[in-house]
Amino acid sequence: MIRDTIDGGDALASLTPNAEWAFRNGQVTEWKSAGITQPTQAEIDAEVIRLQAEYDGNAYQRTRADAYEEVKEQLDQLYHDMTAGKLDATGEWHKAIKAVKDATPKP
């Protein structure tokens, strides 16, 4: 199952990538990295908000990735376009890629 929400554990991993800690019920229960400063709850909460906004802002990328044909299929389209002399906007590969981009524009 793919998660679509960011939590405090994600924020801690972002803020202190080399730290070790225990995190339960939205709180740090044990900080195991004496040489690394533990973020405050306010810093963790702010990082959750920042990471969630970044994740939400990239939704179009995930939607496009699911909509694109597999790479081997795209390569086959390119091969046929090359053979037909259509390595421009009239080729099937270009049309397929453009259709996905048009259906899911960048915000």
Task: Please write out the topology.
Layout: H1 8-15, E1 21-24, E2 27-31, H2 41-57, H3 59-67, H4 71-83, H5 92-103
Helix pairs in contact: 1-2
Number of strands: 2
Order of helices and strands: HEEHHHH
Proportion of residues in β-strands? 5-15%
Q: How would a crystallographer describe the biggest sheet? A: 2 strands, antiparallel
Low-confidence stretches: none
Structural class: mainly alpha
| Cα radius of gyration in angstroms | 22 Å
Give the overall silhouette: elongated
Q: For the terminal residues, how far apart are their CA atoms?
A: 26 Å
What share of the residues lie within helices? 55-70%
Strands in their spatial order, largest beta sheet: 1-2
Averaged pLDDT, please? Answer: 93
Number of helical elements: 5
Task: Provide the descriptors you would attach to this structure in a database record.
107 residues; mainly alpha; 5 helices; 2 strands; elongated
Please, could you describe this protein's structure?
The chain has helices spanning 8-15, 41-57, 59-67, 71-83, 92-103, and strands spanning 21-24, 27-31. The protein is mainly alpha-helical. Strands 1-2 form a two-stranded antiparallel sheet. Strand 1 (21-24) and strand 2 (27-31) form a beta hairpin. The longest helix has 17 residues, at 41-57. The chain is elongated, with a radius of gyration of 22 Å. The protein starts with 7 loop residues before the first helix and ends with a helix.
